[in-house]
Amino acid sequence: MNSDQMLVRSAISNKIFQLREVNVMLDFDLAELYQVETKRINEQVKRNTNRFPNDFMFQLTEDEHENLKSQNATSSWGGRRKPPYAFTEHGVLMLSSVLKSDRAVAVNIQIMRVYIELRKKLRSEESLNSRMDQIEETVSNQNNRILTIVDYLHQKDKEEIPRRKVGYKE
Question: Which domain holds residue 113?
Fold first, then answer.
């Protein structure tokens, strides 16, 4: 992978957000990547509504929009009357079928590769979390065993056992 591709993937990764427990990209970020106006994307979506069910695309609520703006400390989003549309991975993929430019196809390929990398990282993270849970459980069990042994030794120490005298008998 050359440095240009790495820059493009990095730029794409920075435009993926998690909303409503799914990874999404916003219409204006996609427009920037496709080098078209946001309204052109939204026009194509409106012309092809049957291709964009709610699990492929949804409009942000005012609260989500405000929250996203405050998280990104961006004020250049002004001028919109409505909150942006969010496209899930499948929605982004569907966009390539309605935006027929070579640029849209090339960008979509890069976006899909970024989504694949994100899934791999997530699987790896889940695997590590599972392993950490197993290690924590093992350590906890060992700790409990050690405490039981220490308690037993303390109990033995407290018990007075009559001792035989050591030495010569007279």
Answer: 3-127
When divided into structural domains, the chain yields a total of 1
Q: Are 15 and 25 within 8 A, CB to CB? A: yes
pTM over 0.85: no
In a domain, 146, yes or no: no
Distance of CA 92 to the CA centre of its chain: 17
Note whether residue 148 is domain-resident.
Answer: no
Among 139, 141, 120, which Cα is nearest to 131's?
A: 139
Domain presence at residue 163: no
Domain assignment present for 74: yes
Tens-digit pLDDT string for the chain (170 aa): 666 666 667 778 788 888 888 889 899 989 888 888 898 899 988 998 888 999 999 999 888 888 777 666 554 555 567 889 999 988 888 887 888 778 877 788 888 888 888 888 877 777 777 888 888 888 888 888 888 888 888 887 777 666 677 777 66
Q: How many CB atoms lie within 10 A of CB 75?
A: 7
